[in-house]
Design goal:
The protein has one domain (2-75): F1F0 ATP synthase subunit C (F1FO ATP Synthase, Up-down Bundle). It is mainly alpha-helical and 82 residues long. Helix content is 85%, strand content 0%.
Length: 82
């Protein structure tokens, strides 16, 4: 039984850790592309900034959904039989 709990803890760590790495890389790439595109066409900064903030929110939402799933497995684990 302890082995299952340890594996669940490890899985939760992977879910949160890989989600954080993916979200930070995604936002970094998006921010770089925003700076490149705003330097090329400064008249479109307002439209590009709006789209960038919407995408940043969606990327963060995907990460937070992963955190919620990890919390579900950590506290209401469906894999542990009682």
């Amino acid at each position: 039984m302890e082995n299952v709990l340890g594996m669940v803890a490890l899985a939760c760590a992977f879910i949160v850790g890989l989600g954080a790495i993916g979200a930070s890389i995604g936002i970094a790439i998006m921010g770089g592309k925003f700076l490149e595109s705003s330097a090329r066409q400064p008249e479109l900064i307002n439209e590009l900034q709006t789209k960038m903030f919407i995408l940043a929110g969606l990327i963060d939402a995907a990460f937070l959904i992963g955190v919620a799933i990890a919390l579900l497995f950590a506290f209401a684990n469906p894999f542990v039989l009682k």
